[in-house]
Amino acid sequence: MTQTSKRRTVFVLIDGLGDVNIDCLENQTPLAYAKTPNMDSLAANGVCGLMDPVQVGLACGSDTAHLSIFGYDPRVYYRGRGAFETMGSGLYMDVGDIGFKCNFAVYDPETGIVQKRRADREFGSWGRSLCDYLNEHIQLCDFPRHTVTFQYATEHRCGVRIKGPGLSDEISDTDPLKDGLPLKTSVALTSSREAQQTAVVVNQLSKAVHEALEAHPLIIERKKRGLSYTNIVLFRGCGRRVDLKSFREKYGLRAFAIAPTKIIAGLTLCLGMELVPAPGATGDYDTDLLSKARTCVEWMRKEEDYDFGFIHVKAVDDTGHDGWLQGKCMFLEKIDEMIHFLLEQLGESCVNLVVTGDHSTPVTHKDHSLQPVPFVLCPLPFGSLSSDWPIGNITKFSEIDAGFGLLGRFTGDQVMPIIQYFQLV
């Protein structure tokens, strides 16, 4: 490389990036088919490879994938989604607290059936006030040393934090997972006293929430008028806040994250990253991707001297889950425009630009799958890699082409060592 000082890193992670060959795309993947000249330029001027986020052959979740990619073994540190969702929704958690990702739902107390697992999508207009109401009215009479806090997230979702002695995340959910099935009773998954007690706490909380919502004037009025309503909260994905070494302690890097998606926001907070809002960035289809890029550039130029900027992009994963082929190609091209802005603003800086995914979400499968994802690390300005590096003749950033790259095939726990290596070369 022509630069000898330590390089900083901008890391763009495209959720659900990978896919499979599709007949109507001339037997190409959406990434290979999409027009992505800026990502292609990164591949031509950087080092590429194929990355299995956790391990070969595993269709992983975003949470475990991110842990692995950031260098925290999910087999050791993963304690469920709840803590990440709760932190991401805006509730700080201490070590030992438990959190849940929850749905406001519709429940028939006479039959015990959960009629709708998700309240109306327009629920957001009154979801925040219901969370405030529950915070004022919910008390666990049998557990006076335990406190419960509700935090509205998005649509029908909220985060719930429980503080108190002797809590465990080794309990089952109350969510039946499908409409029209009975509300589940939380049970301990181990014989520990803490798990047994926590299951009792959650079941008492579930009952108290139902009774409080049934008595809410708004719910009573909406039921009378035949409008959509909610009368229960489903407790899902219990997770305990664990004591993790911060990203800065682990790597000596001062990091910020732009991650509107709650679970990723919470995970980065647990790692001690600075969570930075970007105006108009929502984490869904109407997100402002250029706002993420502008915010990233602004923070990389701050006097505080950040070493590591992380941008998470969710919409591509949603297109995979929705089976929206055209949308996946379209959003990949929009992300390429975002990367073009990063190159315009940072192209002459001593920065390494990394682009990869956290897993594959094929549009034909509509779920996470086991295929590896392409990875590229490109030192800026273009041409910073000396001719001694056998980077090959890659001209397209795609699942197939990246497999011919210098890095070969590797697992997610090698991402940070690769980044650290190229910071110092």
TrEMBL record:
Transmembrane segments: none annotated. CDD domains: iPGM_like (cd16011). Gene3D superfamilies: Alkaline Phosphatase, subunit A. It comes from the Eukaryota. Pathway: Carbohydrate degradation. InterPro entries: Alkaline_phosphatase_core_sf, Metalloenzyme, Pglycerate_mutase_ApgM. Residues 8-377 form the Metalloenzyme domain. The keyword Transport does not apply. Belongs to the BPG-independent phosphoglycerate mutase family. A-PGAM subfamily. This is Metalloenzyme domain-containing protein. The lineage of its organism: Eukaryota, Rhodophyta, Bangiophyceae, Galdieriales, Galdieriaceae.
